[in-house]
Design a protein that fits this description.
375 residues; alpha/beta; 13 helices
Length: 375
Amino acid sequence: MITDQPYCSFAVVKVASRCNLNCTYCYMYNQADQTYSSQPKRITPEITRSLFLGVKDHCRRHTLKQFVIVIHGGEPLLLGRRRFRDFVEDGRKIVGSEIDLVFTVQTNGILIDDKWCDLFKELRILVGISVDGPESIHDKYRLDHQGHGSFQRTLSGLRKLQSCGINPTVLSVINPSISPREFIKSFIELDIHRVDLLLPDANHKYPNLQKPSFESTIFGDWLVDLFDNWISLNRPFSVRLFEYAFALLRNINVSIDAFGSSTNHVFVLETDGEIAALDVLRTCYDGASSTGCNIVTSTIDEALQSPIMKAYSMSGTDVPSTCRNCKFKKECAGGYLPHRYSGGEDFDNPSYYCYDLYRLFSRLDQVGVSALRSG
């Protein structure tokens, strides 16, 4: 048993390294890192077996009773239903019943049909689907390789899931060009229950063109407006970002790597078996997430000793020097590690969204937890 060493309880597994969409902001294909081009298109049974043997060993070493596998890509459904089934069933067989192996899949939804829904239900797969808001916003960035929007195909997949009793969590990249009230209205119409909001991936070297300056609070203003509308409409769906931020303001330690002072217990597995750090680090420089360890020849514990894995794991406690006197140092903790990047290998900076996060935390601190209780 190992109790004083870093560990992981969560793995993002890239079962497919290619995608049937070409989203303009995608960190895998359209930013600094192009590692995907040299990777196998799909994970192999040999890599799969090594992964689950490694997970089993890691859980035993650290006495973990539960481990989460996020089936990811690219587009993970490109793996195909038969190999998807094999992946999940082999994992449960290899890891064994003493460890609760939880599977979730993050998909763009356009391949989902009745057979996929049946498989998700049979295998007890939790589902996340990516929707950026109403059709006009979604189709501005989530394009296929011919330049066509994907909203209607994603909507078809979403309706298939809902019709068979699956209520997916919706992953949505924030776009301040849509009014928050319209954003909320579109998700109410889609009958969404849970929303996970993401700031667009950007940093000091590769800025977001919608944000005119580092000091701009365009994203923070949007989030505050969204929050106020969300509360006034009696919280029509769960918003993880708001709920976790409130928890941190109440001194409740929650696990979220976008902010907060918790340790991150996550690794990424590439289709070639590489054990990598956070995949969004690809937005910083080519090979930024690489640990040099492969699941076939290395243990998860060995990969956790790599400098980039340590930097990501401890990013919530290793607060940038300029953040140490901030009122929300504990809650924000410098923000998301990829958003701190400024060039070279320098992450000792506040988040590119520093002023936006301060604006949001200030508003939530102002209204207090009574806003959640009174809704």
